[in-house]
Design brief:
The chain has helices at 3-24, 29-36, 40-52, 116-132, 170-178, 187-198, 258-261, 263-275, 295-303, 307-331, 341-345, 347-360, 363-366, 379-398, and strands spanning 27-28, 56-62, 70-75, 81-88, 91-98, 103-110, 142-146, 149-151, 156-160, 165-168, 182-186, 207-212, 216-222, 225-226, 335-339, 370-373. By secondary structure, the chain is of the alpha/beta class. The strands form 4 sheets. Strands 6-5-4-7-11 form a 5-stranded mixed sheet. A 5-stranded mixed sheet has the order 14-13-12-15-16, sandwiched between helices. A 3-stranded antiparallel sheet has the order 1-3-2. The longest helix has 25 residues, at 307-331. It is globular, with a radius of gyration of 23 Å. Bound molecules: zinc ion (ZN). Zinc ion (ZN) is lined by residues 239, 249, 251, 253, 256, 258.
Length: 401
């Protein structure tokens, strides 16, 4: 056998094993042979070397049906660190994570500019200090979760209507400013990836994550693998048509889900009801500027039982429930995870959307769906983006030496 090929095979074997542990969490040796398709002997040899190099460790045993309890293998906490960042509402949330998904360090960076170069510069200017405070040197790559439709193959934002960006080569800007390779994906899909691997979806094979804030987008996971589609656009749930004659959306369509069920849609609906003579405790007299009313206030009002707020929340959540029912019939998920500012701050929104989903989807399918709220808040996007960067560049980074 050619020795160099042998070395290459061993590296490939180790990467397959690490990738299986990253995607599935702690598993027994026997499960690793099934997940990787490698022989028992090959897995055993590679595991011994990975344990020796402190990348993998044995962990608690799990009772098995008959026979000995199986020893599980897991990625060693804090052995390697990877950095991710999420850009949302003019703020970077930056995180350093180990491979099992622990947050090692985090920081927020407010951004005042809107040009892509300056938004990235606000991040790269602070990265050096952030890295200097880490307990160990991180892998030289960074994952970014960004708004809009992102071409994950080329690291380009195709369009982000909130920011007015189109065809922005973010990967090149990061490379020029910081010198590290990067991986870029939609921020909602990044949050979904963190939930699937480490959060509310970690015990499920078929996972749908739906983020609801100023926009709406989904991350779809088939056998725990994120679906991208041809250009990374799979999961643009915010732009499916709910009302053919509904309000115009920046995407060019009418009646998109995002125009009916997002935070701004709720604010718009609330203002219309007030102008029509509606009354609400969150707007007790007419002294306030109607534009100051925000979705967080409406969510808080609905949680307290304010009638007008409840009406607005139920209407918006009802539209999301229709979209969830459609997704249940198409994807047959085990779990739907609702994340983003609206579901995380409004129990009523989640409850109504779930009820409508159960009413409208095929009952044998909804009978097996669990609806959960996200385990991670802002840090989830950075965590998912860091993991996406590792998915793309692990071979380059982990075995660089
Ligand atoms: Zn749209």
């Amino acid at each position: 056998m050619n020795p160099s090929n042998n070395v290459g095979d061993q590296k490939g074997t180790k990467i397959s094993i690490i990738q299986a542990l990253r995607i599935n969490g702690p598993v027994a040796r026997i499960e690793l042979t099934k997940l990787t398709g490698l022989s028992r002997a090959t897995v055993s040899l590679a595991i011994a070397e990975l344990i020796e190099s402190h990348l993998v460790q044995e962990t608690e045993t799990r009772p098995s049906t008959g026979g000995r309890p199986a020893i599980l293998l897991e990625l060693t906490p804090h052995a390697n660190i990877v950095i991710g960042a999420d850009y949302s509402n003019q703020n970077w949330t930056v995180g350093a994570f180990d491979l099992p998904g622990n947050v090692v360090q985090e920081m927020g960076i407010p951004v005042t500019s809107n040009s892509p170069e300056l938004v990235v510069k606000a991040l790269t200017d602070r990265l050096g200090d952030f890295i200097a405070k880490l307990p160990t040197r991180p892998m030289e790559l960074i994952g970014l979760g960004l708004p809009g439709l992102v071409d994950v193959n080329r690291g380009i934002i195709k369009s982000a209507s909130d920011l007015g960006w189109a065809e922005v080569d973010i990967s090149m800007i990061v490379q020029e400013q910081f010198g590290w390779p990067s991986a870029v994906l939609n921020r909602h899909r990044a949050r979904g990836l963190a939930e699937c691997r480490f959060g509310a979806g970690k015990d499920f094979a078929e996972v749908i994550y739906i983020g609801v804030g100023t926009g709406i987008a989904a991350g779809l996971f088939n056998h725990r693998q994120l679906l991208f589609g041809a250009v990374g656009g799979a999961g643009e749930l915010g732009h499916i048509t709910i009302d053919p004659d509904g309000p115009l959306c920046p995407c060019g369509n009418n009646g998109c889900l995002q125009q009916l069920a997002s935070g701004p849609a709720m604010e718009q609906a609330f203002r219309m009801l007030l102008r029509a003579g509606g009354r609400s405790d969150i707007y007790p007299d007419n002294r306030h500027d109607l534009q100051l009313i925000n979705a967080e206030m409406i969510c808080a009002g609905a949680n307290k039982g304010d009638e007008l707020c409840v009406k607005v929340v139920d209407q918006a959540a009802g539209f999301l429930g229709i979209a969830m029912a459609t997704m249940v019939n198409i994807m047959n998920p085990g779990v739907i995870i609702l994340g983003g500012a609206i579901p995380l701050s409004c129990k009523r929104y989640v409850a109504t959307a779930t009820q409508v989903m159960h009413r409208r989807a095929m009952s044998p399918l909804t009978a097996n769906v669990t609806v959960k709220t996200a385990a991670y808040h802002e840090i989830g996007g950075a965590m998912g983006a860091a993991n996406f960067a590792l998915d793309l560049h692990m071979s380059y980074s982990l075995f660089k030496k």
